[in-house]
């Protein structure tokens, strides 16, 4: 069906356009609100600036389609193929993309507030500066987890998003806002979170090995039982963070702020904590074997039963700290 025909039929009241062949169709700036395009073939179609609110695209093929600036709020796009589609600046608020393929898609500056992104393939997608606040990205039992491996989420807004169990390995989240987000059991191995803001975020049992957290703000974040082995936390703000039983071995925490952090039972062996601020931190049963604490501030910290054998403490401040033997350092 031609673009002219579909627009004419729409104007006359038709809304069901399921399974149509619209390859390369030019629907620029078209008004198709509420239509049914289930299983339609829209490969390489031009839908730039189109009004597609509440359109049903289930199992539709939109690979390579141009949707820049289009309005797709509350659209239903379950299992749709949007590989390499251009959605730059598109409005996708409360859209249902469950099971969709958005690999290599361009979602730069797109608004995905409250979008359902469960089981979505976002490998290599460009989500730079995209808004994903309160988006649903958690792993759903019986379905593959959402994967964003290799995606660009630089400066993206993920405040309050639920990414439980998602695959974010190698993702660029530098400068992103993840405050209040839930990232429990996510795979962020090798990701870049430098300069990210993730106040009060939840990263329990997450794979954070070799992640770059340089100068990020994770104040009040929960890293309980997370794997931070070889992570770079240089100058990271971890004020009041919960790192209980986390693996932080061989990590770099030079100059990091760990004031009032809870680090009970965590593994900090061979980690670099030089010039870090650990004042009032709780390090009960912490494992600090061969850690570098040179110039660190552990004023009023609690180190009861902590293991410090082989640790370097040149210039370390222990004023008022409770030492491993239970005695207070004067």
Overview of the molecule:
By secondary structure, this protein is mostly loops. It has one helix at about 5-10.
Q: Note the beta-strand portion.
A: under 5%
Sequence stretches where pLDDT stays below 50 over 5 or more residues: none
Query: What's the quaternary structure here?
Result: single chain
Major β-sheet, in short? none
**How many angstroms separate the termini?**
84 Å
How much is the average pLDDT? 97
Q: What secondary-structure arrangement, pairings included, does this model have?
A:
Elements: H1 3-11
In short:
With 330 residues, the chain is largely without helices or strands.
Sum up the structure in keywords:
single chain, 330 residues, little secondary structure
């Amino acid at each position: 069906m031609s673009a002219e025909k579909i627009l004419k039929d729409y104007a006359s009241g038709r809304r069901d356009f399921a399974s149509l062949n619209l390859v390369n169709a030019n629907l620029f700036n078209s008004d198709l609100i509420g239509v049914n395009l289930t299983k339609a073939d829209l490969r390489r179609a031009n839908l730039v600036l189109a009004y597609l609110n509440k359109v049903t695209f289930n199992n539709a093929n939109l690979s390579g389609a141009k949707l820049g600036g289009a309005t797709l709020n509350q659209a239903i796009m379950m299992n749709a193929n949007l590989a390499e589609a251009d959605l730059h600046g598109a409005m996708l608020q409360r859209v249902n993309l469950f099971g969709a393929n958005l690999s290599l898609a361009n979602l730069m500056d797109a608004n995905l507030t409250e979008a359902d992104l469960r089981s979505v393939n976002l490998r290599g997608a460009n989500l730079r500066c995209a808004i994903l606040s309160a988006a649903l990205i958690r792993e759903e039992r019986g379905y593959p987890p959402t994967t964003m491996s290799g995606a660009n989420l630089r400066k993206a807004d993920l405040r309050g998003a639920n990414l439980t169990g998602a695959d974010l390995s190698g993702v660029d989240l530098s400068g992103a806002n993840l405050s209040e987000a839930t990232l429990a059991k996510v795979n962020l191995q090798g990701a870049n979170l430098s300069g990210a803001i993730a106040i009060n975020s939840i990263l329990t049992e997450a794979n954070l090995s070799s992640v770059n957290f340089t100068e990020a703000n994770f104040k009040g974040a929960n890293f309980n039982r997370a794997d931070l082995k070889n992570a770079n936390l240089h100058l990271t703000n971890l004020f009041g963070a919960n790192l209980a039983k986390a693996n932080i071995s061989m990590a770099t925490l030079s100059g990091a702020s760990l004031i009032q952090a809870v680090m009970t039972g965590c593994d900090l062996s061979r980690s670099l904590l030089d010039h870090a601020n650990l004042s009032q931190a709780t390090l009960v049963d912490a494992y600090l074997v061969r850690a570098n604490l040179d110039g660190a501030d552990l004023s009023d910290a609690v180190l009861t039963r902590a293991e410090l054998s082989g640790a370097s403490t040149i210039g370390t401040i222990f004023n008022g700290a409770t030492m491993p033997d239970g005695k207070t350092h004067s």
